[in-house]
Amino acid sequence: MIEARDLHKHFGPIKALQGVTVEILEGLTLILGPNGGGKSTFMKVSLGLYKPTKGTVKLLGKNPWKHPDVRKGIGVAFDPGRFPKLTTGREWLEFIARARGADRSDVEKAARLFGIEDALDRRIEGYSSGMLKRLSLAQAFVGGPDVIFLDEPLANVDFESVAEIVRVICKWKGKGRSFVIISHIWEPFEGLADYGVVISGGKVYLKGEFREIADDVAEMFRPLGIKNGSPG
Ligand SMILES: Nc1ncnc2c1ncn2[C@@H]1O[C@H](COP(=O)(O)OP(=O)(O)OP(=O)(O)O)[C@@H](O)[C@H]1O
């Protein structure tokens, strides 16, 4: 789905990506790593939102910068989600659905997936932060894209919502959809992830089948020297 070769992205003096080479296959890939490591930049370059400073990336076999049409089959939720606040949830989701060549009726379906169907006709400025997260997720799923990118889908949601969101992802994965998920909260995805990529300091630090790298990932997120609840 994504083939990145020696990908670099600089923002002035900031080297957000410094030679990322990775192939992301169909299935569910978790992208992990520390704050500021380059995960979101990798996602945005892969989508063709940013032009790489150096190197190449192919999304579904095409350069996404030169062939933006490739994005039609792709859903995206950014973090934090940004929306025109005076529009209603319905207007926003219809706008996304039309851009994706989907039907207006898909808007209700996507809203129901994340429990915001009753808020669709309200202005986004009145949404709580939890509802904004649900709206951004509905935006990624509207029209049933084949590949769904989610940046921090579990950030700022309550405990019950975590289970609810993971259930929706699990169901859609079961229907053959592929996911690229950036998440600090990776444990709920442990049983679902096929592959993992750790990006740190703008480089790929670790990659592979998730079950093979799961122990290393757990180790990375454990505070230094602490094991089984006590200092090692
Ligand atoms: N548009 C931009 N302009 C300038 N600097 C940017 C831009 N986007 C990202 N950066 C910088 O690039 C580096 C990588 O950021 P990025 O958001 O990709 O990291 P991340 O791994 O997704 O981190 P986080 O988990 O905090 O979102 C950071 O130093 C960030 O401040």
Automatic annotation (TrEMBL):
Gene3D superfamilies: P-loop containing nucleotide triphosphate hydrolases. SMART domains: AAA. InterPro entries: AAA+_ATPase, ABC_transporter-like_ATP-bd, ABC_transporter-like_CS, ABC_Transporter_VariousFunc, P-loop_NTPase. Residues 2-226 form the ABC transporter domain. It holds the Pfam family ABC_tran. One of its GO terms (molecular function) is ATP binding. Keywords: ATP-binding, Nucleotide-binding, Transport. Transmembrane segments: none annotated. PANTHER family: ABC TRANSPORTER ATP-BINDING PROTEIN ALBC-RELATED. This is ABC transporter.
